[in-house]
Amino acid sequence: MHPVIVSFRDDATPDQIETAKQLAAQNGKIGHEYTIIKGFSATLTEENYVKELESLPGVQAVEADGVVTTC
């Protein structure tokens, strides 16, 4: 499994976002939908879906999701 955060460009359309969400849902599971940024978390079944998501119009980045801590 590959946990990721998908973020979108500011000018991404609702249709572009929906297309990315559908791809993620078909090939894994959508976790949280973010409101502060245009984006969502997902757990993908295969790493090659990361590249497929990255290639979609409107997608800014697909990054590995992980735990962030501060000192």
TrEMBL record:
GO MF entries: endopeptidase inhibitor activity
Every Inhibitor I9 domain range: 5-70
Single Gene Ontology BP annotation: vacuole fusion, non-autophagic
Domain of life where this protein originates: Eukaryota
SUPFAM superfamilies tied to this protein: Protease propeptides/inhibitors
Protein family (similarity comment): Belongs to the protease inhibitor I9 family.
Protein name according to UniProt: Inhibitor I9 domain-containing protein
Organism classification: Eukaryota, Discoba, Heterolobosea, Tetramitia, Eutetramitia
